[in-house]
Amino acid sequence: MPIVMARDLEETASSSEDEEVIGQEDHPCIMWTGGCRRIPILVFHAEAILTKDNNIRVIGERYHLSYKIVRTDSRLVRSILTAHGFHEVHPSSTDYNLMWTGSHLKPFLLRTLSEAQKVNHFPRSYELTRKDRLYKNIIRMQHTHGFKAFHILPQTFLLPAEYAEFCNCYSKDRGPWIVKPVASSRGRGVYLINNPNQISLEENILVSRYINNPLLIDDFKFDVRLYVLVTSYDPLVIYLYEEGLARFATVRYDQGAKNIRNQFMHLTNYSVNKKSGDYVSCDDPEVEDYGNKWSMSAMLRYLKQEGRDTTALMAHVEDLIIKTIISAELAIATACKTFVPHRSSCFE
């Protein structure tokens, strides 16, 4: 919430009743918090994209709120901000309340952020999002707090630096193993191997022990896409959205070595499986358990019917989220203190 807007709202809430104002308690986009309920939080309503409600739109227009989108498309972000009356400015403009960017800001730009400006990345958040940095951070936490407390990754090696160690481990347990680029996404460059000779060492990669007995639904591998928001690293504040997605592979799982190159069996990324002739989409928002994308709620209901303890499962998931973020907390919090003049400027 921009400080400038907060001040405007406070003044509005205490102004004359004769004026046409938006006061406390009487607008769906404003929630008042804090001591004496004087701190406003702007609440976004997703349905406003469809309803185009002028009562929703008036908030951004009244307080002249603006945003810019840099180095990304983010059509959904643009749609929801526009529906709430935010005005889009040129990517080079410095007059904005929110910057939504597809890349990290340089330190000199972070230092220029005012109290009324927010950006959707923390400095050095690549400590979480790059696979090599995340691996190193978790290894450091294992050394500091004990392997068992932070045993949240399969056995992993960073190649080519740890190639000798990997080969030594492979000689004792042949795998299979899964190879991933250190800074990629959407399943690009990911493949399985059962021999070190199958690995290309032309770039930095991670090699992890493949989980070859995964939890299956109807014999298909799946993953869960969760939505986690961090609003502060000092103190650390984490939110987990109550809903998520389960994404399914399009070929039934088989441990046989002959299938090791079948991406549609082993990878669950939508970007990979949408290319499969067996991919099934579901366009009905009321149907949660059909096709290759389910809601997380539907997935949990299915597992509960199968006798799984879904309460314990989600407790383990929350523990995993917390430990993952804690592993990078020190580096990111230090960068925030160094480069970001206002504690509330960043979120991610």
UniProtKB/TrEMBL annotation:
InterPro entries: TTL/TTLL_fam (IPR004344)
GO MF annotation: an example: tubulin-glutamic acid ligase activity
Spans through the membrane: none
Keyword Nucleotide-binding: yes
Top-rank taxon: Eukaryota
DNA damage keyword on record: no
PROSITE patterns xref list: TTL
Catalyzed reactions per annotation: L-glutamyl-[protein] + L-glutamate + ATP = gamma-L-glutamyl-L-glutamyl-[protein] + ADP + phosphate + H(+)
Keyword annotations: ATP-binding, Ligase, Nucleotide-binding
GO cellular component term of the entry, any: ciliary basal body
Secretion signal, residue range per the UniProt entry: none
Annotated GO biological process: microtubule cytoskeleton organization
Similarity remark: Belongs to the tubulin--tyrosine ligase family.
Stated name of the protein: Tubulin--tyrosine ligase-like protein 5
